[in-house]
Design a protein that fits this description.
- By secondary structure, the protein is mainly α.
- It contains 6 helices and 2 strands; from the N terminus they run ααββαααα.
- Helices cover 65% and strands 3% of the residues.
- The longest helix is centred in the middle third of the chain and has 41 residues, at 80-120.
- The radius of gyration is 25 Å and the shape is elongated.
């Protein structure tokens, strides 16, 4: 079934501008087909690829790596090991990002608990205040400490 750029935008959640960017950057697995009047025509397989491509981009894969992956896919059978290695490297980077984000989330949760505790006790004014660093230096140190292990 042929799809217009507007239909693909609606179904993929990407803007028409983003779709044109993906095409310009060579990020479609198959070249985007055009009618004689220049209108772009897409197919279901383009939507499937876009879903994968969007996940690769949102997980931080560089455009150059996506292009390399697409190039390997277009070459057809025989380079599956290279594709697998490219995906494994990215998987490792994503896992590292998740660990780092989990550490950040732990710190944020601790800070939220500190603020909730102080606000509920009516002691929010005792939280670190850069206008009065000497009076709150000890609290600032406490607030900025990494979470204790339990």
């Amino acid at each position: 079934m042929d799809l217009s750029i507007g239909e693909v935008a609606q179904r993929s959640g990407l803007s028409v501008h983003a779709l044109r960017f993906y095409e310009r950057e060579g990020l479609f697995a198959n070249p985007v087909r055009r009618l004689s009047n220049g209108r772009r025509i897409y197919h279901e397989e383009d939507l499937e690829w876009l879903a994968i491509c969007v996940k690769l981009r949102s997980s931080g894969m560089a455009l150059v790596e996506i292009r390399r992956y697409i190039e390997l896919v277009r070459q057809g059978p025989g380079n599956e090991h290279e594709r697998l290695e490219l995906l494994r490297r990215h998987e490792e980077r994503v896992e590292t990002q998740i660990r780092e984000l989990q550490g950040t989330l732990d710190v944020m949760r601790r800070k939220v608990r500190i603020y909730e505790d102080h606000v509920s006790r009516g002691e929010a004014d005792r939280l670190w205040n850069p206008s009065h660093p000497a009076a709150t230096q000890a609290r600032a140190h406490q607030e900025c400490r990494p979470p204790e292990s339990t």
